[in-house]
Amino acid sequence: MRIVKLNEQSKQDILACLLKRDPNNYSGYEDRVQEIVENVRNRRDEALIEYTEKFDGVNLSAEQLRVTEEEILEALSLVEPSLLSVMKKSMKNIREYHEKQKQYSWFDSQPDGVILGQKVTPLASVGVYVPGGKAAYPSSVLMNIIPAKVAGVERIVMVTPPGKDGKVNPVTLAAAHLAGVTESYKVGGAQAVAALAFGTESIPRVDKITGPGNIFVALAKKAVYGHVSIDSIAGPSEILVLADDSANPRYVAADLLSQAEHDELASGILVTTSMELAKNVSEEVEEFLKNLSRREILKKSLENYGYILVADSMADAIDTANQIASEHLEIVTRNPFAVMTKIRNAGAIFLGEYSSEPLGDYFAGPNHVLPTNGTAKFFSPLGVDDYVKKSSIIYYSKEALEPIHRDIEAFAEAEGLTAHANSIRVRFEE
Fold first, then answer.
1. What angle do CA 348, 350, 355 make, to 5 degrees?
2. How far are the Cα atoms of 29, 185, 322, 413, 420 from residue 216, in angstroms, in the given order?
3. Catalytic residue flag (residue 328)
4. For a disulfide at 144, which of 78, 128, 295, 386, Cβ 3.0-4.6 Å?
5. Pairing outcome for strands 238-243 and 328-332
6. d(Cα 109, Cα 133) in Å, to the nearest integer?
7. What are the tens digits of pLDDT across the range 285-320?
8. Annotated catalytic residue, options 238, 327, 330, 357
């Protein structure tokens, strides 16, 4: 891995490089995605079936789009019992963590007859996009569906591309069943997002769409936002390790590679105050690359977006971590809890040398759907809040309104909104 001495110029160059991966920069795909979205919106099932044959290589009828109970039972029989057991353990942790996020309706009453409050209501329906085909991502299935279940969403729809055999990957289907999905459909890509947003004869529309996908899925979610809600427009995965000279270079190297293997746009960055650690980590990375199965993807990822940055001080290192605002941040220092208090921007923070990033991906409980491409400066991980909406509650008695009605009328008239003022005034006419 390249080792760079950290200064203001190198920091800005790296930030500019990382931003090239932002899905919003891939405008060349937007016209193609918009065409797919509009075609599905207008031609519905007919368009879905055409795109499924074109992109996934399988010809399904409208009746075959929805996964049947028989297919679910078949999938469960094909998954190793040991993997089902692991998924159930993971589910327990995910559910317990997200149950602590639940918010409840509240009301505050005053002696003069004022009642203010907030009503928390689960969304009626959500759609979860899950990448499919040859790959299986049961962890993403759990991370999207379980918070929705905890929130109280009644209808949870999964869409995922079918394999060449016209079936959903059994591991994906088993995970969705265990997590409590309501219905599943064999459709992927931008066309699946459009179906969830506008509805077709076979797939009723939903209120919100969550879940990761490729650039076509990301841009389709952007295109339908406003017709439905979305969680975020996810970019490529990334990890930043913040370390001092106490860190184990072998652990750090392994953790950087754990995210770099996702795809060629993934990013792995080490920011450290130790040049010795920097050199040792670089050597360990080279050794690991000799034996890892996705070495070609790893090499391109590290060549394009992998860095080892050597800072003059921990304060500079922390400042850099806050500016990059990584999806995953590992703090491997003598006192990681003290460093953590100075971090403002990160999707998920892992503390200490035994809290490696895959722990969060699969098992610990916090959600692994996280803000990417610097959006951790203003976005949060997926959670229960993403599956509820809130309504304000306002009640005033006549006795509570009377002493303030002229103040409200004056405020409205100052804005030139005389009908607003009149709406209050008529209640106190002689």
1. 135
2. 7, 18, 29, 50, 46
3. yes
4. 128
5. parallel
6. 55
7. 999 999 998 889 999 999 999 999 999 999 999 999
8. 327
Cross-strand bridge partners of residue 351: 331
- Asked about 303 being catalytic, the answer comes back as no
Task: Give dist(CA 216, CA 230) in Å, integer.
Answer: 15
Distance of alpha carbon 257 from alpha carbon 302, whole angstroms: 9
pLDDT in tens, 380-396: 999 999 999 999 999 99
Angle, alpha carbons 30-33-34 (nearest 5°): 85
- The single residue of 328, 330, 357, 409 carrying the catalytic annotation is 328
Question: What are the φ and ψ backbone dihedral angles of 121, each rounded to 5 degrees?
Answer: -130, 130
Tell me the pTM: 0.92
- 129 SS3 class: strand
Which residue intervals of 341-426 are DSSP H helices? 357-362, 398-401, 405-414, 418-425
Q: What is the distance between the alpha carbons of residues 368 and 346, in angstroms, rounded to a whole number?
A: 12
Q: What share of the chain is helix, strand, coil (3-state, %, to 5)?
A: 50, 15, 35
